[in-house]
Amino acid sequence: MMNRFALDDPRFPAAFLAIASAGILAAALFFQFVLGYQPCVLCLWQRVPYGAVIAFSIATLLFRQWKGLGDALLVASGFALLAGAGIAAYHVGVEQHWWAGTSACGSTGHAPQTLEELRAQVLAAPVTRCDDIAWSLFGVSMAGYNVLISLALSAFAFLAARSAYIRTTATRTFA
């Protein structure tokens, strides 16, 4: 069981979030470049929050002497991961055909009227459609797993920030 006091110092949660985010990005790149699964636009958007969390975590580790900055960056990481879960949930909805994707998702708009319009539409079309499920395990797509992972990491970030806040207020009260 993880020591509760490990959450009192924002460096441990920041390092954990950075390693987890880097691992998730590495897995996405492995699927893309080694296994050949091309990402759609929403897949690429889902990577951005993990990059932000890595940046927030590095800042927490580098500027640990600034009191409160690490705690604030844990909260920012929690919100970034929550946004990532939202993007992933939207992507799941597109994959399940609950709603249409963005115009960048390869949705078919109006039919081209001229050869030039057709050429422009073909050149502008993304390689991978957002509503195609490229990979799934137990009926859950990568976007579905990303929802779960993002929510779990977001909860961890908020829990760590809350623990740090309680530590700070207890220190002020009893000091």
Automatic annotation (TrEMBL):
It is found in: Cell membrane. It is a multi-pass membrane protein. Its main location: membrane. This is Disulfide bond formation protein DsbB. The keyword Magnesium does not apply. Keywords: Cell membrane, Membrane, Transmembrane, Transmembrane helix. The chain crosses the membrane at residues 12-35, 47-63, 72-92, 133-159. It comes from Azospirillum rugosum. Pfam families: DsbB. It comes from the Bacteria. PANTHER family: DISULFIDE BOND FORMATION PROTEIN B.
